[in-house]
Amino acid sequence: MKFTQLPEDVFKQIQLNAGILASGFTPESGTVTGIIGATSGGVNFKATPSFKDFGEDIDNCPKNTMELKKLDEWSVVMSGNFVTVTADTAKILVGAGDNATGVITPRNDLDLADFDDLWWIGDYSDKNGSTNGGYVAIQMLNTLSTGGFQIQSTDKEKGKFAFEFTAHYSLESIGTVPFKVYVKAGTAE
């Protein structure tokens, strides 16, 4: 028996290219609004759950008993590098700051307006045309730049603005996990 096989429709299930970061996306129509900037090297998204094992301190109870396991929370982070920057992008990267006609002034306090949703959208499937293309999209809820403001410039190269965005829970809906994943196969144009 051989196990070096692929599904027949493997090409229909591949995410292609680096994708984009945007402030808005409508999954039903595939409409993107507010592209934040061009990236270099792609992006890294990580949603990591943390668990509590209520059986770990009970005598004669094996560790990691599924009936006694509880999911506490999710840590949701996206990181990468922008190679383009605008005043609006710089304000997003600063996190807690204000944009007054191209002058970004950091603050020492957070405002609820500093948190906003962030979308990553990438091409998906063998049908990825401009009208009916497939996509994988990740919506990060209540996102804030938590990696600080960073630039790495290099002689005769592009400057890179490193980013790290973290999604946050909200007291208004404490049970809502701060990310969603959308997968839509494309159809013929």
Task: Name some characteristics of this structure.
eight-stranded antiparallel β-sheet; globular; 1 helix; two-stranded antiparallel sheet; single chain; mainly beta; 10 strands; 189 residues
Describe the structure.
The protein has 189 residues and is mainly β. Helices cover 4% and strands 47% of the residues. It has one domain. It is built from 1 helix and 10 strands. The longest helix is centred in the middle third of the chain and has 8 residues, at 87-94.
Major beta-sheet overview: 8 strands, antiparallel
Using only CA atoms, what is the Rg? 20 Å
Report the helical percentage: under 10%
What's the domain count?
A: 1
Any idea what the shape is?
globular
Overall mean pLDDT stands at 94
* Helix/strand order, N-terminal first: EEEEHEEEEEE
The separation of the N and C termini measures 40 Å
